[in-house]
Structure formats: C-alpha cells, structure tokens
Amino acid sequence: MTQTASTPTKLNKFEKFKAEKDGLAVKAELEHFAQIGWEAMDETDRDHRLKWLGIFSRPVTPGRFMLRLRTPSGETNSQRLRVLGEILQPYGDEGSADITTRQNLQLRGIRLEDVPNIFRRLEEAGMTSMQSGMDNVRNITASPVAGLEADELLDTRELVQQVQDMITNGGEGNPEFTNLPRKFNIAIEGSRDNSVHAEINDIAFVPAYREGILGFNVLVGGFFSSTRCAPAIPLEAWVEPNQQVVDLCRAILEVFRDQGSRANRQRSRLMWLIDELGLDGFRAAVAAKLSWDLLSGAAEDEITWEKRDHLGVHPQKQAGLNYVGLLVPVGRLNAADFLELARLAEVYGKGEVRLTVEQNVIIPHVPDSRLEALLQEPLLATFTTTPSPLVRSLVSCTGAQFCNFAMVETKQRALDIAQELEAELDFPRSVRMHWTGCPNSCGQPQVADIGMLGTKARGADGKPTEGVDIYMGGKVGKDAQLGSRVMKGIPCDTLKSVLQDLLIKEFGATLKG
Ligand code: SRM
Ligand code: SF4
What we know:
Layout: H1 13-20, H2 30-36, H3 43-47, E1 55-56, E2 65-68, E3 75-77, H4 78-88, E4 96-99, E5 105-110, H5 115-124, E6 141-142, H6 157-168, E7 186-188, E8 203-210, E9 213-220, E10 223-224, E11 229-230, E12 233-239, H7 243-259, H8 270-287, E13 312-315, E14 321-326, E15 332-333, H9 335-348, E16 352-355, E17 361-367, H10 368-375, H11 379-382, E18 395-396, H12 411-424, E19 425-426, E20 433-436, E21 450-458, E22 464-472, E23 484-491, H13 492-507, E24 510-511
Parallel strand pairs: 6-7, 7-8, 18-20, 20-21
Antiparallel strand pairs: 1-2, 2-5, 3-16, 4-5, 4-15, 8-9, 9-12, 10-11, 13-14, 14-17, 16-17, 19-24, 21-22, 22-23
The structure holds siroheme and iron/sulfur cluster.
Iron/sulfur cluster (SF4) binds next to loops.
C-alpha cells in the first residue's frame, strides 16, 4: 500500500485485523474450520474474515451461515440453479435464499462443515462467492436483459465478467483488491433505462456517444451509509466499451485502495476520498495510472427512458422469442423454487435465467409457441407475471429475520402491509415501495416512491416500539434522484393508515367501493 498524506496514523479496528491477516487467507483454512466447527473458530476469522469468501456468520441463527454468491449481470442458468437447490435441500425449512438488490443470490441455513463441498460444487458449475462481502467489490450489476432487447445500446455482459475476473482473479481471489478501505459497488449499464441505479454506485458506466462513437460516460462516488447518502457525480470522463472499462476500474480501485481513508469507517467510501482530493485531483490521480488518455465526458448520456421492471412477457430482439419476467415476492426463494425455475428455464427457454435489482427473475428465450403453456405452470401462480400494483414493485432488505443490524422485521411485514393496502385501495399505477431494516439502506428506500427505513419509535402508550422513517421522492431511470426523509419514527402498528393516506393523496389511490 502506498503511503500518502491521507494515510491515517490511527487505524480503525477493522484495519487492525486486516493488517494482522488478510481476509483471503481463510480460504486455505476452510477444511480445517469445517473439521473443528464454528464454535471452536477464532472469532475474527468466523465473524469477519469468512466474509471475504462470501460466508457470513449470522448471530440471529447461530451455526447457520449465509453464503453470498457473485452473479455478474444477474446472469445464471438452470444448471446453476439446480446446484443451488440441491445445496439447500438437505437443510429443510432452515434452507432458503434471497435475490438481492444487486441482482445476486444469497443462500441461508448453510452449515460450516458443508462449505468445502459446497465450494467444490459451485466451482464445478462455474459459480463463485469470492470477495462478495466486507471491504471488497460487490456483485457487478448490468441490464438484466442484456443481449435480449432490440433497443439496447451495448451488451455489457462480457465487460462485466472481465471486470469481475480482474478483481477476483477469475474467482480464485485476488489479494490486490482484498484490502480496500471499504465496500465498493460497480455497475455497467448498456440499456436506456438505468436499470442498475447508476446513481448509487461507486463507479457507474452509462452509455454515451462521443464524437459519434458509442461508449460510456463515467459516474463516481454514489453510496448510501447510515451517516451520509450521496448520488454519484460525473468523473468528466468517457471510455470506449472495451479494455478501457477494465483499466479504468483497476485505476480507480488502486487510487481508492492506496489513498482512501482507513481511520473512520463512516468516512471511508470513495466519495469521501473524492471530497478530500477534489474531483480534479481525484481524476488526475486516476488518469495518471492509465497507459492511455482519459478523454473528457460526452455532453450527454443515452439514459432517456423511464426505468422498466421487466415483469411480464416481452418480445426479444431474436425473432419469435420472448423474455418472461416473474415476480418473486420480496426476492425470497426455497430449494423447490430453484429446482422448478431450473426446469421451467430448460423446458420453455434455453436454460438461461436472469435476476433483477428489484429481486425478481427473468426466463429468456421462450418461443411464442410455448408462452401460453409457460404461463399456465403452477409456479407462476406464486411467481406471477401479472402482480398486483404494490407487490409488483415491492423491494425489501433482509431485516430482523437474519440480520443483526435490523431494527425491524422487513420482508414479511412489507408483504403483509402491501397486500392489506391492496385489499382496501384501487391504484391507477404501481407504486414502488422499498423497505430497509436499518440506516445502512440495503433496501434502497431513497430510490423508492415510498421508502421505509427501520428505526425505534414510540407507541401510543409512550413505550419504545418498532417503527420506520418514511422516505419519498426517489426517482429512477432517466434524471434519477434520491428521495429524502419526510416522516420520522412512525410506529409499525400505525403505519398502514399513514401509507393509506399517502397513497390516496400523492399517488391517486382510491378507496374500494
Ligand atoms: Fe447491504 C451491510 C445485506 C445491498 C449498504 N448488507 C450488509 C450486511 C452484510 C450486514 C450484515 O453483516 O448483516 C447485510 C447482510 C444481511 C443478510 O443476512 O442478508 C446486507 N445488502 C444486503 C442485501 C442482501 C440486501 C437485500 O436483501 O437485497 C444486498 C446484497 C447485495 C449483494 O448482492 O451484494 C445489500 N447494501 C446493499 C445496498 C444496495 C445496493 O448496492 O444497491 C447498499 C447501499 C448502497 C451502498 O452500498 O452504497 C448496502 N450494506 C450496506 C451498508 C452501508 C455501507 C456504508 O458505506 O456504510 C452495510 C454496513 C457496512 O458495510 O458496514 C451493509
Ligand atoms: Fe441488515 Fe440493515 Fe442491510 Fe437491512 S439495511 S440487510 S437490516 S444491514
């Protein structure tokens, strides 16, 4: 690590344990951990370093781990889903999974003694969980319909894979990028609708023409944290849609790794470094690492559409084929769902499956002739193509069921309240409601029409109770904007009536007759 003026004199506790032993080092010890069991493990290895391999100990479910994969561009297939279903099956009711807000998958209920074998199975099926947690680059997001839609500007899947391979050394683990000052998010958009929420990524590539050539404008520094939320800002740079993207990611990561603050973890995300160096200084530090000239940004980008949710049936650019978006309520799946999705993708498509940042699933390549039969499949009664107006756009973080940061239970509550409101109201359009269990904002309440952020509240009797802060004004797609907090500390047991009011006043909902 290069010493710079910003190198702290005092390291935070995470930096101390990282300096003692790199997170990736536990990769070589997995068999040993499996043998001795989680109870006997060194606590820092168990509760922190394992996250470098995507293995998260869950204090809420002791001895049952969460496994976060990497699913670049949200692209997976029936063979992989079958393997994931088979991994979960032996865990019975304790095994489950979630599609995440970074179009990724997390498995739950995992026992540590099974991990070496699980890792072998993941590798055989071409999956990895490497560097998916802690101070690493998260799953790289892209349009979930890359390569499928006629109007797409760039099919970014290969680029996304190249960036992931650079960062993780092809999924083996790459010590060059395992000790960032903090987590890091990258998105590469190839469509016109900003399907990735470019504005909330540390680096986002958005399509833009410069002198008639299609490439990407680059945004940097977008992030949410409990103390600050900042939209990404233009780096004033344009890159070609090729190795330049990979090079630029590497250069930015190196600058962040070497110059980012390691003193206070609440001030360590990339935007804090951009603040410190100034945008020009940051850009110059990045440009100095490149062997080619970093060009100025294009005057405008090509994000010109409203954001789509990709649910329902949509014709593909390949004549006679369709992609079919299925709603997975708040992203929750079980073993049987994986196996059934795998079967449907093979019988009706070509085995391909895509995931979305709205925590849903897409089955591509369904011929016109097989559409009707797919729509009649029993799984589509639950994972419907025609969801009701609130459940359609519902997004929720993990919440108290599995996450010890949570102030409130989220997923089930989100579904229950949405369904109760749907029973009482008619809606002229879908309303995007996002739930997040604490100020870390994994469920992105700031991008929602109405966002709920878990907090402590006071009930009518004055006693502490579960509550939420309400966010409004999030705008996605073109001209994306973050919403802001409009109400504080609403007790969960009075929330439904508050939401009913908001839906009527602000979104044109009407009471059912
Ligand atoms: Fe997150 C930490 C879950 C997307 C901001 N996030 C956590 C942990 C790992 C905390 C923990 O150890 O328990 C949560 C694991 C709970 C569990 O058991 O699932 C967790 N985050 C999630 C997921 C699963 C939410 C979901 O249900 O979809 C998402 C996984 C994405 C993935 O596939 O990698 C997830 N997290 C996000 C996002 C949204 C995004 O990327 O678009 C954000 C806000 C954007 C950002 O990062 O700037 C987000 N998560 C955080 C933060 C606050 C970061 C900060 O700078 O302070 C934390 C806490 C931290 O890192 O210290 C956090
Ligand atoms: Fe856990 Fe909070 Fe993230 Fe929800 S927002 S998953 S409660 S850390």
